[in-house]
Amino acid sequence: MRRLFWLAMGVTIGALVVRKLGRAAEKMTPAGIGASIADGLRDLADAIGDFGADVRDAMAEREQELRAGTGLDSPLPTGDQVRLPGRGAHSAE
């Protein structure tokens, strides 16, 4: 009975090792290398896209802060509210 157990254990471990080596050998073929490169490039493209979206969001937020701070979004003054330098009430004569 003990021998049967160890035989089964050896067959199981041998099968696992063969499967592992088969996967490693498949990754070393040109198709396997190409697939891993494609996966890496896809991950890189996703990361670059996420970074670009974060940058655009930060730019929009900062632009809103700057517009609020400088008053660029406030309504334009009407004609009677405009005061030009050097043009007082006496200069109109």
Question: What does this entry look like structurally?
Answer:
This protein is mainly α and 93 residues long. The chain has a domain at 14-68. The protein is 72% helix and 0% strand. The protein contains 2 helices and no strands. The chain has helices at 2-27, 30-70.
Tell me briefly what this model is.
With 93 residues, the protein is mainly alpha-helical. Helix content is 72%, strand content 0%. The mean pLDDT is 87.
Layout: helices, strands, pairs:
Layout (H helix, E strand, L loop, with lengths): L1 H26 L2 H41 L23
Tally of extended strands?
0
Q: What would the average pLDDT be, to the nearest integer?
A: 87
Question: How much of the residues is beta strand, in percent?
Answer: under 5%
- The separation of the N and C termini measures 122 Å
What string gives the helices and strands in order?
HH
Continuous helix count: 2
- Uncertain regions: pLDDT < 50 for 5+ in a row? none
Q: Name the shape in a single word.
A: rod-shaped
Query: Major β-sheet, in short?
Result: none
Radius of gyration: 36 Å
Fraction in helix: over 70%
Oligomerization: single chain
Class by alpha and beta content: mainly alpha
Give me some keywords for this one.
93 residues; mainly alpha; rod-shaped
